[in-house]
Amino acid sequence: MKFVKPFNSSIYLFLIVVAGVLSGCNYDARLFKKAKQNFELGEYEWTIREVKPLAQRNYRAKETNYFVAESYRLSNRIQYATPFYLIAKEKGYDDKNINLHLAYAAKANGKYADARKYLKEFIDSKPSRELVVKAEIELENLPAVEEYSKKPSPVKIQGLVGNTNQAEFGPIKIGDELILTSSKKPLIYKNNGLPFLGLYKARLKSPGEIEKLELFSANLLDANANEGTPAFSKDGNTMVFARGNSGKSKDPSPDVDLYISTKRDGNWSTPERLAISDSIGWDGSPAFSRDGKTLYFSSNRRGGKGGLDLYRAPMDNSGRFGRPINLGSTINTRGNELFPYVSEDGKLYFSSDGHPSLGGLDLFVASRSGDEIQIEHLGVPINSVGDDFGLFLADSTQGYFSSNRVGGKGDDDIYYFESTGSEDRWWSNEIMISESGEAAKVALYHLRTQIVNERNKPIAKAKVGIKRNGEIQPVQFSNAEGYLDIIDLNPADQISFNASKEKYLTKRSEFLMDGREIPKQLLKKELTDTTFDHKITLGLAEVGEELGALFDVNPIYYDLDKSNIRPDAAAELDKIVQVLKDNPGVSIELGSHTDARASASYNLKLSQRRADSAVKYIIEHGIEASRIKAKGYGETQLINGCSDGVDCSEEAHQENRRTEFKITDLND
């Protein structure tokens, strides 16, 4: 009989355990890879669901916790992000902005002392000047925020009976109905895990209670897009609303745009995109003026003050809208302003996280006194540490607003409020911040400019030309520490610099006072002395360097299967023209690319047409043809994973349809 080795059960069990561990590791690795792909596609709720269990199992802890925290932040739920950011920070995740995110998360939870601590740590880490200014403004706002948290509104509020566990917001009362936005569509929006938003209506049983929601109009429904925040003209026959965020690659509006519909014979027409919408920006939360001749809305289009700004566009008698106009730096900030609403008495109500706010978005009112616009915070309980927005006044003593504060039924809820005061209006000017009877408070501003290299080391004897509000100032030379003479500033100053030094590329830079002036209500002393630091970084002139990084020039982008120069691309090419005029010895290559759709041979030709088109634009603006080379690379240099056969969003494909700029030659 052939010898058979005895069965060893302990070895068998050991092998089973090892196999299980290896299988589990492979499963976690696959799950992590899938979660990263979801994150890159903006599917933040799916990322949280996949990555949070990995974080709890301590798998790649610093990365998984960071992805959970970022997913909460980017899906507007930063109040849940704190513990995950803290673990990622403790484990050494390399993101210099974590302390800034932690500050916003602390503020969103009403923990202002923690917010102050994280803001100071962030500023001490020496981030970019833009982020320093943002953090400094938040830090300066905190004393006012703490005062606002104790400031009562003359109202009582209640959650609307009829709110669900989904999102309801943006109420408008018409007759005995409430028109609102709700996440009730069958399909799920992967950014936040809620159903897509749509327009709904409900009959009011009482001012604080609604019956069952019904679809507002089947003609306005796009099942695969978010739709909401309608605005109605004075006669009720014209409606403007926001639509977008479908996430589909063929979506002609991959972000959010404004759409218009008119009512004929009781039916709403098929919506059409408004021409004033920015094709590459976010445009939403529209509102008509009381006379119906002006449309207010929020947008992050180029040229704003920062984040989302409020704009107004006039409407003529034929229903056509004129050019949108920014409402200016008294109302708009470096943060976000949205959800405008104009009351019968001409006051503008809006939400902002750039003005001092208790947490996220707070409600404010802007009113005019003579030539001055005054901004008031609406206090508590109207405002909370959550997002408070979408106010509507039913009459002078009652109305509605939206909030995602703690204690609601769903993601966003609608709240009903009514006045508790003896005034016939729910909001009284008597509680405005006033300095009457006090000594005038003055703020002085100064600008300290330093010239540095790419390693942040000072550059001495750099020659700097200066213009102040368009007027040429005396030329300055940087001292041994790279500093120029300090400039005393006025609130409306615009300072332009043109810095040069042998062996370095000449660079222009600008400092604007717009939006930096400290609000009067934040001035605590009779004299506040503030100095702004402004750095100009000069790069060494080297062949092969990308101009984008050296001069803050973005790549230019193209529409699908097109090579024409879009307005946003022209703005970047104008920067390149200026760089080449300032540096006459520099020659460059314009390297153009396509996405992976269509054949490789077709894309190579398309990319060359794009490069030629960009070169033609630069030549037409005064640059010699011998200094510019057009080179098409087709689809050979994709900057993301959107290769052949990969299903990507239009935004992801757009990243690949680009032209970049590289130095090819230097002549004295």
Automatic annotation (TrEMBL):
The keyword ATP-binding does not apply. Transmembrane segments: none annotated. Pfam families: OmpA, PD40. Keywords: Cell outer membrane, Membrane. Residues 545-667 form the OmpA-like domain. PROSITE patterns: OMPA_2, PROKAR_LIPOPROTEIN. It is found in: Cell outer membrane. This is OmpA family protein. It comes from Aquirufa originis.
